[in-house]
Structure to design on (396 residues):
């Protein structure tokens, strides 16, 4: 089940979002778009991601989890084919919209629910293993895509990407089952006593006032981890580094992302998600600051990318762990959907920000990333505040 979910996530998130940052400078240069126009393509993708997340409940009422996830893979394939055929700004936005629809219904919402069905024990570790594949998507693939684009052109690279997505999503469909009952088995750890080291999963753990902190936290997390990641190559190139250095930097983040997700899951299972948050939340700010002041130093650049990459696990494993800790009994599906909607809303709202600030500051993306570093600290304080409030209510 982890392998099936991982293959889907590799396509709907890894290849369509994480490595898309490689395409960004070439789309910008070859089509003579402004920085703001380039960012708006990502905003369109994020708008449709949010819309599909809002409609995910209806979508999965008409389709099983397995069927819905399979269709998301086909939509991702179609999105890359449309990118290959794009000749106008509208066409690029339309392609981004299709990718966004697939992302909304084919990433962490269904995957978290499927693994919730299949795992009673070690659920956070299962999510970590599955989501670590998004880091694998950046191992060598950015360099390969850069070579394909420079040798064969942007259209060819998009078509190769589409073919890879189609093959992997078909394999994913063959592996995934919506629930253990479909295979005549039971969830992993069923019947065992669950040892809790985090905030209890009691009914009513979250109350209305908690969302006053959770909503801005999710919006800022979307800005820092999603928008921040997708604009990294233009930030690095703007610091005076080559396109190949930028592509290698994405691979460095990928390695760090794999380690970070596995470490976050293991640390949360052993200690608590609350303690893990302090470490990973602080690393986001540190990594962003190092990248912002990396000009002239490959060492500062790669150290910053490593630190930032390790911390990116908060937007996948973190969201699922938080939903598991803070949702009431039987409310996990709804909570994880709301968390992902909030995260997607942040990605959408802040997508134009780097491009707009770059146009206002003579092409520099540094001001936007300094702002993201500040956002990361505020986001950390907000999620920890919710944990503390829930813990106090349980104790009282």
């Amino acid at each position: 089940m982890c392998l099936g979910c991982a293959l889907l996530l590799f396509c709907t998130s890894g290849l369509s979002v994480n490595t898309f940052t490689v395409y960004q400078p070439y789309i910008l240069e070859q089509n003579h778009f402004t920085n703001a126009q380039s960012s708006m393509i990502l905003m369109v993708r994020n708008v449709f991601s949010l819309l599909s997340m809002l409609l995910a409940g209806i979508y999965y009422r008409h389709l099983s989890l397995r069927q819905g996830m399979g269709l998301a893979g086909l939509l991702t394939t179609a999105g890359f084919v449309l990118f290959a055929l794009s000749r106008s700004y509208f066409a690029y936005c339309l392609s981004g919209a299709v990718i966004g629809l697939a992302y909304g219904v084919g990433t962490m919402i269904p995957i978290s629910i499927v693994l919730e069905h299949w795992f009673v024990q070690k659920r956070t570790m299962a999510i970590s293993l599955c989501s670590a594949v998004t880091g694998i998507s950046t191992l060598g693939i950015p360099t390969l895509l850069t070579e394909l684009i420079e040798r064969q052109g942007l259209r060819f690279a998009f078509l190769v990407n589409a073919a890879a997505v189609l093959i992997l999503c078909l394999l994913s469909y063959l592996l995934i089952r919506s629930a253990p009952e479909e295979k005549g088995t039971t969830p992993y750890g069923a019947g065992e006593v669950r040892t809790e080291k985090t905030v209890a999963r009691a009914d009513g753990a979250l109350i209305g006032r908690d969302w006053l902190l959770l909503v801005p936290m999710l919006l800022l997390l979307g800005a820092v981890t999603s928008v921040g990641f997708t604009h990294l190559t233009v930030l690095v190139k703007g610091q005076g580094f080559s396109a190949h250095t930028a592509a290698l930097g994405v691979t460095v983040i990928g390695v760090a992302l794999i380690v970070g997700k596995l470490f976050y899951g293991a640390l949360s299972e052993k200690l608590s998600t609350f303690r893990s948050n302090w470490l990973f939340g602080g690393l986001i700010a540190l990594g962003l600051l190092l990248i912002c002041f990396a000009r002239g130093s490959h060492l500062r650049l790669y150290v910053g990318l490593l630190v930032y990459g390790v911390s990116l696990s908060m937007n996948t494993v973190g969201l699922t762990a938080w939903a598991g800790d803070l949702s009431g009994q039987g409310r996990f599906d709804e909570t994880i959907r709301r968390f992902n909607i909030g995260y997607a809303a942040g990605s959408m709202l802040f997508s134009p920000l780097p491009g707009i600030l770059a146009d206002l500051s003579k092409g520099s993306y540094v001001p936007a990333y300094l702002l993201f570093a500040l956002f990361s600290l505020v986001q950390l304080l907000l999620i920890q505040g919710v944990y503390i409030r829930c813990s106090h209510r349980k104790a009282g």
Remarks:
- The chain has 20 helices and no strands.
- The CA atoms of residues 210 and 269 lie 24 Å apart.
